[in-house]
Design brief:
single chain; mainly alpha; 2 domains; 0% strand; YqjK-like protein
Length: 100
């Protein structure tokens, strides 16, 4: 007995179900391939992140998240220059430590 060749031919209802099962298997396989491709693309993209300078990473962040940059600029304008300088003197050592 071979599992691919049934002894009794499938009825039309069974054939309809078999076609649906085959279509579902194709969808699952396509989804797996798309997921694998997205993961490999993400790994390739993530590999180059650490190589760029801080300025290039900031520019890339600004392009990807314009609303966050606008919110940050608005907060900077609301705080004023003296507070920004004070907070920059606190935050700059943290930023430089995280770069390493």
């Amino acid at each position: 007995m071979h599992p691919d060749k049934p002894l009794v031919p499938a009825t039309p209802a069974q054939q309809k179900i078999l076609i649906r099962i085959a279509a579902q298997r194709e969808r699952i396989q396509a989804r797996r391939q798309a997921y694998a491709q997205a993961n490999s693309a993400a790994e390739v993209g993530a590999a180059g992140i650490g190589d760029d300078s801080l300025v290039l990473r900031c520019v890339a962040f600004a392009k990807q998240h314009p609303a966050a940059v606008v919110a940050l600029a608005g907060a900077a304008m609301a705080l004023g220059p003296s507070r920004l300088v004070r907070w920059a003197s606190v935050a700059l050592p943290w930023i430089l430590r995280f770069r390493r």
